[in-house]
């Protein structure tokens, strides 16, 4: 699941919910968000984007660097805790 921000009001038929609050954060799969946008683009081509992803996926390099940093931080914490 990913986190998205509502940019324009729309109705999620599968969710059985209206997303009316601009700026509201909602959680759904990337595939579902793409499906919603494709349906809106098909029916209302001038309406524009309705969702914006908030938690952009990290690249593999960034994810590996973050993991390495966390490992080093954890090691440093455990060493100081042992003293």
| Regions with little confidence, pLDDT below 50 for 5+ residues | none
Give the CA-based shape: elongated
Structural class: alpha+beta
**How much β-strand is present in the residues?**
15-25%
Largest sheet, strands/sense/barrel:
3 strands, antiparallel
Q: What strand line-up does the widest sheet have?
A: 4-1-5
| Total domains | 1
Order of helices and strands: EEEEHEH
Mean pLDDT value: 83
Could you tell me the number of beta strands?
5
Helix content: 40-55%
3D structure, described in words:
There is one protein chain. This protein is of the alpha+beta class and 83 residues long. It has one domain. 45% of the residues lie in helices and 22% in strands. It is built from two helices and five strands, in the order ββββαβα. Strands 4-1-5 form a three-stranded antiparallel beta sheet. Strand 2 and strand 3 form a beta hairpin. The longest helix is centred in the last third of the chain and has 23 residues. The radius of gyration is 19 Å and the shape is elongated. The mean pLDDT is 83.
In short:
The protein is of the alpha+beta class. It is built from two helices and five strands.
Strand and helix layout:
Elements: E1 2-6, E2 10-12, E3 17-19, E4 25-28, H1 30-43, E5 51-53, H2 60-82
Antiparallel strand pairs: 1-4, 1-5, 2-3
Key structural traits:
83 residues, alpha+beta, 3-stranded antiparallel beta sheet, 5 strands
């Amino acid at each position: 699941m990913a986190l998205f921000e509502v940019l324009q009001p729309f109705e999620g038929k599968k969710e059985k919910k209206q997303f009316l609050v601009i700026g509201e954060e909602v959680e759904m799969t990337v595939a579902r968000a793409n499906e919603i946008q494709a349906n809106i683009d098909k029916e209302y081509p001038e309406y524009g984007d309705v969702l914006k992803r908030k938690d952009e996926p990290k690249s593999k390099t960034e994810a590996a660097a973050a993991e390495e940093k966390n490992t080093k931080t954890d090691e440093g914490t455990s060493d100081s805790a042992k003293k």
